[in-house]
Specification:
Protein name: TPR-like protein
Number of domains: 2
CATH topology of the largest domain: Serine Threonine Protein Phosphatase 5, Tetratricopeptide repeat
InterPro entries: NLR-like, TPR-like_helical_dom_sf
Number of helices: 8
Strand content: under 5%
Distance between the termini: 45 Å
Pfam families: TPR_10 (PF13374), TPR_12 (PF13424)
Length: 161
């Protein structure tokens, strides 16, 4: 039902607003998220790629909506076990966030932790450890020792060890 409503909404927006309009892209991204949640990863991937390409062209690769679309595609790659492709996209997103938001921004730290998880999944323990240590140090410096983000970063590092 939800999927049908999203598809109808997307079709109407494409017709009225055009393919490049943000409302159309948002509808497309929502359908991709529904596909992702329903384990329809190939369909989700196709939509996320389309949204990323259009957003990069229309609003730029540094725009938060473009970076969110990249994160959705990364989740799709994770579900498909395509770790190298996830890693490449995570590196792009992390470097962009470092440049635009700075290293200590919560979104940058999330990107760093995501990349570290990908490294860990690939058995790249040293690379994962180095990123998890960075994330944990920044969380300890910026947040309380018992803050959930600090504790999560500590747990990620511990499970890497």
């Amino acid at each position: 039902m939800l999927q049908d409503l999203n598809i109808a909404s997307r079709m109407a927006r494409r017709k009225i607003l055009g393919l490049d309009h943000e409302e159309t892209l948002s509808s497309t991204a929502m359908i991709g998220a529904v596909f992702l949640a329903g384990a329809r990863w190939t369909e989700a991937e196709a939509l996320f790629v389309q949204v990323i390409q259009t957003r990069k062209r229309v609003i730029g690769e540094e725009h938060p909506d473009t970076l969110i679309s990249m994160a959705n595609l990364i989740l799709t790659f994770w579900n498909k076990g395509r770790w190298k492709e996830a890693e490449e996209l995570e590196l792009q997103g992390m470097e962009t966030r470092k440049r635009v938001l700075e290293e200590e921004h919560p979104h940058t730290l999330t990107s760093m932790a995501s990349l570290a998880l990908t490294y860990r999944t690939q058995g790249r323990w040293d690379d994962a450890e180095a990123l998890f240590v960075q994330v944990m140090k920044i969380h300890k410096m910026k947040l309380e020792a018992d803050h959930p983000d600090t504790l999560t970063s500590m747990a990620n590092l511990a499970s890497t060890y």
